[in-house]
Amino acid sequence: MNKMIGEQTIKFDSKPKIISSAAIVGPKEGEGPLGEYFDKVLPDSYYQEQTWEKAERKITQETIELLMQKANLSADKIDYLLGGDLLDQTITANFVARKFARPYFGLYGACSTMVEGMILGAMLIDGGYGQRTINFTSSHYQGSERQYRTPNEYGDKYPGYKQWTVTGSGATLLAKDGQGPVVTEATVGKVMDLGVKDPMDMGAAMAPAAADTILQHLNDTNRNPVQYDLIVTGDLGEVGSKLLRELLEDKNIDISEDQDDCGLLIYNSDQGVGAGGSGCGCSAVVTASYLLPYLNNNRFKRLLVVATGALMSPLTFLQGESIPSIAHGIVIENDTQNNAIGNQEFEQRQKANNSNGELNR
Amino acid sequence: MNKMIGEQTIKFDSKPKIISSAAIVGPKEGEGPLGEYFDKVLPDSYYQEQTWEKAERKITQETIELLMQKANLSADKIDYLLGGDLLDQTITANFVARKFARPYFGLYGACSTMVEGMILGAMLIDGGYGQRTINFTSSHYQGSERQYRTPNEYGDKYPGYKQWTVTGSGATLLAKDGQGPVVTEATVGKVMDLGVKDPMDMGAAMAPAAADTILQHLNDTNRNPVQYDLIVTGDLGEVGSKLLRELLEDKNIDISEDQDDCGLLIYNSDQGVGAGGSGCGCSAVVTASYLLPYLNNNRFKRLLVVATGALMSPLTFLQGESIPSIAHGIVIENDTQNNAIGNQEFEQRQKANNSNGELNR
């Protein structure tokens, strides 16, 4: 009953199905090239709440409600919730889990949380411990900046290589039975650290972890990058994506034709977002509202999502530490004629969307 | 291949083995009734480091090294690490995981982290996703007080119902094969909240979650409390333990003869620790160094450990929120003649120990 292939990759023979996905984003994300794809775009960052933290919670709660509604399931049909976020003590996830009152695993994987949750969800189902899991995550630009760097009101000038934390929440519903793209493999990441100390430069800190996980995954599966329609990293942004390609070139792996990054997909270059998007919400909303429907529409057959997380805190920065990072990879495939995740809706949105929203392949 | 019994309980047919456990504690914990049982007692809270956070990291790292050494295994034989702690962004666990460079799942379950990690570790092994997992957690009194309440140097007076955060790290090594107590069942908890708002009163906040998980577990397994040698809660302390018994009495369940609490076991009542111990380290070190050897020595046949976590943050308190809590339960049994975890050593320690260290049954 060994389900490992190679050294570090899991094979899910039962192919857990992603029967629903949902994402709600903030106004800036709504103005980006993927704006049409998200289930809901907020008019402002407070969303009628008094604090950003409460706004993030409300967005996340609504995302999960929408996720279940799309699958026509109520909370009592969900066996496990898996959630985490960037706020101290992952309060968004914990307070949202309270609302739904289902068995809950709290996670901390920084911006890798979406894929960490999907991997554990797929294991719970594939292993026979449940029928349905929901994994969710979120981030909020203003709340995150205040906690990690300085409140926006201080007006600090940031370097161009800094990334912009996505306001939004994404979630997926995995199930033993049903229709939708399937989870076939996962490569759980190791914590890496090449010594980057600048908390503005997260892409550079996370690139070595992404490179390690991709390399391990390709070795374990004995595949080439071209065997994926897309290898999509979580939120390396411009700086980190360039570094990732260089790190892999050193190992004679060329992913330049096959890789894209959620942090680059989510914003237009003229939106003033530095090196691109980041935050738990980044890979979550792009995967939930854009990549999964893409798979579902037979545009893709096989996708490798590699979500990256920078595992430092403001305190470790002040204590002179470098930034450890992690990257978890998950393979999602289009299996036969599954088309649960809003096929027609996706086509309509793509028509309404500007051409930037079309992946270039 | 359904491994669920009842509504919320998992049955591990393959019985993952706990082949090693280890714990290192601070000086106050060393002076308590279980002092002789821990693998190492620190002379002071800094442990030759410049900050409490770095001390916590060092303790945790050494605990894992000791854990592997006891099992005569090197890090490359470990398939997964599962870790978490109380510090913002779980920096202890993340930085420690960097050191060992193995596939890593970051968790946040507050003081329930030890059991959350053991449950997921048991699933990874039982499900066939790996052969060996290490789960670890830690807390540090001074670091924790500064982050959650006020720095000790301010000299705030605390109410008697406040609990004392344990300085220490505990870890267990689960394996498909080997000798030691076995994990047979788990009940994953739901987030509960009965409206307690006082961050000094964690025991009261966590008691409803513990009651819910214990009740669910007994229902699912169709057992009575007397069918366990001990039901041990994580860190409810005096206030929370009393409330737990009352909550269960309301449901006609009497656990008064069968329950104990790690927060009460770890300190003597004259140590000035308020209502007892708490923190991720509390249930971790008591389980690793005391309860597991107890099982291993045939003193116990079946143990239910219910680790409890308060899922708030200082920010949610300041924003007027109550304290959501969670409790995860795990059943550990003595299976045949397994005696991996220091049988003789345990007997010697018990001789050296004062009578307080003897569980009253």
Automatic annotation (TrEMBL), chains A, B:
Q: Which GO terms describe its molecular function?
A: acyltransferase activity
Gene3D superfamilies assigned to the protein according to its UniProt record, in alphabetical order = Stage V sporulation protein AD
- Signal sequence extent: none
Which Pfam family, any one of them, does this sequence belong to? SpoVAD
Q: What is this protein called?
A: Stage V sporulation protein AD
